[in-house]
Amino acid sequence: VVAPEKRAVVVLGLWPVNADLDSRGEIDRVFASGISYVPMEGNVSKRTVVSALEREKPTILHFGGHANADGTAFDDGVAQTGWWSNIAQRFPFKLVVLLACSSLEIVDAMADAGVGAVVGMRGEIKDTVAVAFAGEFYNRLMRGQTVGDAVSYSKLTLADHTDAELIAFRDPNSWTIAQG
Q1: Distance CA 37, CA 27 (A)
Q2: In terms of Cα–Cα distance, which of 48, 53, 102, 43 is closest to 75?
C-alpha cells in the first residue's frame, strides 16, 4: 500500500500571544499527523495571505483564528465572506478547514465557489476543542479517510457531544489526500 502523498497546509491563524488562542497546540497537532505543513509567518493580512498562497500553492488551506458573522479576523482587519469566496475562485484548493467560531457562512461561500470540501464551525468553539479536533482530523486524513469520514469520526472522539455538533462540513466528492 502506497502512503498518501503529503500536501502543504498554509495556516493563516498565527495570532499574537494576547489573542488567547492555542495556535502552537494546533500547529503541533497538524505537524504530528505527518502532513506536509507550512505555517504562515508574520502578520496575517490579505496581502500576506495572497502572497503565501501564490508561493506555496497548497492543496489544503487551514485557518485557525477568530471569526464571526462578519468574517475572519486578520491582523489588518476583517476578511469578509466575499473575500474568502474570491480566494476560493482563484486558488484550486481541494480542502479548506476553518477552525474559527461561526465560520459556516464562509464554509458555504467557499463550497459554492468551487472548493471540493470545506470544514467549519456552526457557532462558538473552545480552543481546546479546535486543537483536539485538528489532531484527530489530520491523522485520519493521512490514514486515507475521506474528509466526511475524518470529520465524522473525529467528532466522535471529542469529550463533549455539544462541541461535536458545532463542527460542520461539506464534502460532496468524498475527497481524500490520495486523490491529490
Answers
A1: 9
A2: 43
What single letter denotes the amino acid at residue 167?
I
Contacts of 48-52 with CB under 8 Å at 24 or more apart are 49/12, 49/74, 49/79, 49/87, 50/87, 52/10, 52/12
What DSSP state is assigned to residue 7? -
Torsion angle defined by CA atoms of residues 144, 37, 17 and 123, in that order, rounded to the nearest 10 degrees: -30
Beta 38-39 vs 95-99: how paired, if at all? unpaired
pLDDT digits (tens, 9 = 90+) for 17-66: 335 566 777 778 888 888 877 777 778 889 999 998 998 888 889 888 88
The amino acid sitting at 59 is T
Q: Decide if 158 contacts 129 (C-beta within 8 A).
A: yes
